[in-house]
UniProtKB/TrEMBL annotation:
Its EC number is 2.7.13.3. Keywords: ATP-binding, Cell membrane, Kinase, Membrane, Nucleotide-binding, Phosphoprotein, Transferase, Transmembrane, Transmembrane helix, Two-component regulatory system. GO terms for cellular component: plasma membrane. This is histidine kinase. It is found in: Cell membrane. Residues 41-264 form the Histidine kinase domain.
Length: 264
């Protein structure tokens, strides 16, 4: 705070100029710290699968050189680790692209019914694998949200994919859309994604949208993920003047609720 950079000597409003400068410096400092943390976390997340791949390469070159069975097994694991790194890099790039656009205000019109059904179709193979039934309701709806289609696709893809991943095997995932208050001036739409799966303990709820944050349970470790999905959701929604909230009961299930401006 002591170092104030004056704007070109004879400024007409030196006090105001100084105030702005101080504000900028602390903002920049905070952004810098977040950036440093982020790079450290991202490097760590990439290093783990990389270390595993390197370990297997050494084993294949050394002790397991002539072990045919080990070859197949290790190559399969190496493939999975490479896939994990690809997913991480894809998510990191996506997050940075979304952040770049943070100050642009999306104005497009998105037909929710179509969008949600498209997301659900894209996740059908994953849901089938866990024998999960997905539904979008109401079946016929002409609700329009204001926003950018690709980004809103990503939001619901991440939420519904999570519901399928952490949902109950043989259970259901329900997607529901509704208009908030027909009479109010600031019209909004609400979309909920409900699963009947694992649930999330209350202490984790406030931290879910932090980058790389994952609830560490036996199940979620086995499932795998980057911990970036909900951070991406949060960033996209913030640019859309949207809201995200979550309600959950451990062992019963989870409801993620998205509120977006309605396209008039
Ligand atoms: P990930 O790639 O780990 O799924 P996300 O950012 O999408 O990352 O989610 C963060 C964490 O929140 C997940 O690791 C999981 O522990 C928890 N989570 C998200 N959605 C659900 C859900 N529908 N049910 C239970 N837990 C969930």
């Amino acid at each position: 705070i002591a170092t104030v950079a004056p704007f070109g000597g004879g400024a007409h409003h030196p006090a105001v100029a100084a105030l702005i400068t101080i504000h900028d410096e602390s903002e920049q400092q905070r952004a810098l710290e977040m950036r440093t943390d982020f790079v450290a976390n991202a490097s760590h997340e990439l290093r783990t699968p990389l270390a595993s791949v390197r370990g297997f390469i050494e084993t294949l070159q050394g002790p397991a050189r002539h072990d045919e069975a080990a070859h197949d097994r290790f190559l399969k694991i190496m493939g999975e680790q490479a896939e994990r790194m690809t997913r991480l890099i894809d998510d990191l790039l996506l997050l940075s692209r979304v952040e770049e656009k943070a100050n642009l205000n999306p104005t497009g019109q998105v037909r929710l019914n179509e969008l949600l059904n498209e997301v659900v179709r894209s996740l059908t193979p994953a849901a089938d694998e866990r024998r999960i039934t997905m539904t979008v309701e109401p079946e016929t709806s002409s609700l329009l949200a204001k926003g950018e289609r690709d980004e809103l696709f990503q939001v619901f893809h991440n939420l519904i994919e999570n519901a399928v991943k952490y949902g109950r095997e043989g259970g259901s995932v329900k997607v529901h859309m509704t208009e908030n208050d027909r009479d109010s001036v600031r019209k909004r739409v609400t979309i909920t994604v409900t699963d009947d799966g694992l649930g999330i303990a209350p202490e984790h709820l406030p931290r879910l949208t932090e980058r790389f944050y994952r609830v560490s349970t036996e199940h979620s470790r086995r499932i795998g993920g980057t911990g970036l999905g909900l951070a991406i959701v949060k960033h996209i929604l913030s640019r859309h003047q949207g809201e995200l909230s979550v309600e959950s009961v451990v062992g019963r299930g989870t409801i993620f609720k998205v509120v977006l401006p309605k396209y008039k």
